[in-house]
Write a structure and sequence with these properties.
alpha/beta, Leucine-rich repeat, LRR (right-handed beta-alpha superhelix), 15-stranded parallel β-sheet, about 35% helix, disordered N terminus, Leu-rich_rpt, RanGap, LRR_dom_sf, small GTPase binding, GTPase activator activity
Length: about 425
């Protein structure tokens, strides 16, 4: 058994539906059946390590729990003690379900837990989660547990990854979260934490990935976040950050991925962002940077992924973007690009994915795009393409994804 195979067993055995293990039948019968099997096998034939090696060869988590657990008490214990499970709850919590969870033989085998939206509505329902002593990743996105619930979560010191987006925590909740010094990944999107909350979050010096979008953060909050020198991935879009705030963000020279969608950035802010030469992925969509801003962004020669949709760029901006020969993924929809701009974009011979929806591209532009033989994914909907243009696109036999053509649909005037 290779080391990689063993790691796959330990880290990726997945149970998509919590009902598979948290049921009366499973909890009441599994161990009992395992005990009965011992009557036929009074002595252990294999060591625990050998049992583990045997189990590690099986890729099906449900098969392991539903069948291998019944081989013997020894196999049952090896699975319980060494397996690492990923669980998702999809049904509303009831007192009975929580009780079943607490009694489960596999509570301490769960390392990754996701609770679907709107299932948690009280702090009491969080208590059983805290009993999962091996849990390192928790996703309770859009469960309205509020500040009191966040206070409870903050006491789970073993967590390294946490998604608490859209749970109404405000800056007070952000203060509790900032005490979780072991976290390396945090999603705290849409929680109205404001500048004061961003100050608390900026104290988490161990974070490497942060999504703090849609939180009413201004230039002051951006200054706090810019002091997080360990971050390599930052999503801070849908806030109220202007050019001055992005002057602070541009000083984060360790970032490789940045999402600043729909902030209040103009061409001056784009100039600051162009100084971040280490970026490989940038989403600057839904900002009014114009052609001048596109010129600055085109100076980021190391970018491989760029979303510059709805940024008021024309054919001139497309020309600047066409100089970014390292790009493999480009979204440039909802702009003012015509056939001339499409010709420029078609010169990006290294692109594998292109979204150029809702521009002013006609049949001629479609012909240029059809010459991009390296593309495997294309969205060219809501342009001015007719039957002739569609014929050109149909010749792109290498495409595995073609989302839209929208023949004759004039959306952008």
């Amino acid at each position: 058994m290779s080391k990689r195979k063993r790691q796959d067993f330990e880290n990726h055995h997945r149970l998509i539906n919590s009902e598979e293990i948290f049921t009366n039948n499973f909890n009441n019968n599994m161990e009992e059946k395992a005990k009965k099997s011992v009557k036929f096998q009074q002595e252990e034939i294999f060591s625990d390590d050998v049992c583990f090696e045997i189990i590690s060869m099986i890729d099906d988590s449900w098969f392991i729990l539903n069948n291998c657990c019944l081989i013997s008490k020894q196999f049952f214990n090896v699975i319980k003690e060494r397996s690492k499970l990923v669980i998702q709850f999809n049904k509303k919590f009831t007192e009975k379900r929580v009780e079943l969870c607490m009694k489960s033989q596999f509570m301490n085998s769960i390392v990754n837990l996701k609770v679907s939206r709107w299932l948690l509505d009280s702090v009491d329902q969080l208590k059983f989660i805290s009993e999962m002593k091996q849990l390192t990743s928790l996703d309770i996105y859009s469960n309205r547990i509020g500040v009191e619930g966040v206070k409870y979560i903050s006491e789970m010191k073993q967590l390294t990854s946490l998604n608490i987006s859209e749970i109404e925590i405000s800056d007070e909740g952000a203060k509790y979260i900032s005490e979780m010094k072991q976290l390396t990944s945090l999603y705290i999107h849409n929680n109205e934490i404001g500048d004061e909350g961003s100050k608390h979050i900026s104290e988490m010096k161990q974070l490497t990935s942060l999504n703090i979008g849609c939180n009413e953060i201004s230039d002051e909050g951006a200054k706090h976040i810019s002091e997080m020198n360990q971050l390599i991935s930052l999503s801070i879009g849908y806030n109220r950050i202007g050019d001055e705030g992005f002057k602070y963000i541009s000083e984060m020279k360790q970032l490789t991925s940045l999402d600043i969608t729909d902030d209040e950035i103009g061409d001056e802010g784009a100039k600051y962002i162009s100084e971040m030469k280490q970026l490989t992925s940038l989403n600057i969509g839904f900002n009014e940077i114009g052609d001048e801003g596109a010129k600055y962004i085109s100076e980021l020669k190391q970018l491989t992924s760029l979303d510059i949709s709805e940024t008021e760029i024309s054919d001139e901006g497309a020309k600047y973007i066409s100089e970014m020969k390292q790009l493999i993924w480009l979204t440039i929809g909802y702009n003012e690009i015509s056939d001339k701009g499409a010709k420029y974009i078609s010169e990006l011979k290294q692109l594998t994915s292109l979204d150029i929806t809702d521009n002013k591209i006609g049949n001629e532009g479609a012909k240029y795009i059809s010459e991009m033989n390296q593309l495997i994914s294309l969205n060219i909907g809501y342009n001015r393409i007719g039957d002739e243009g569609a014929k050109y696109i149909s010749e792109m036999k290498q495409l595995t994804s073609l989302r839209q053509i929208s023949l004759g649909f004039y959306c952008n005037n």
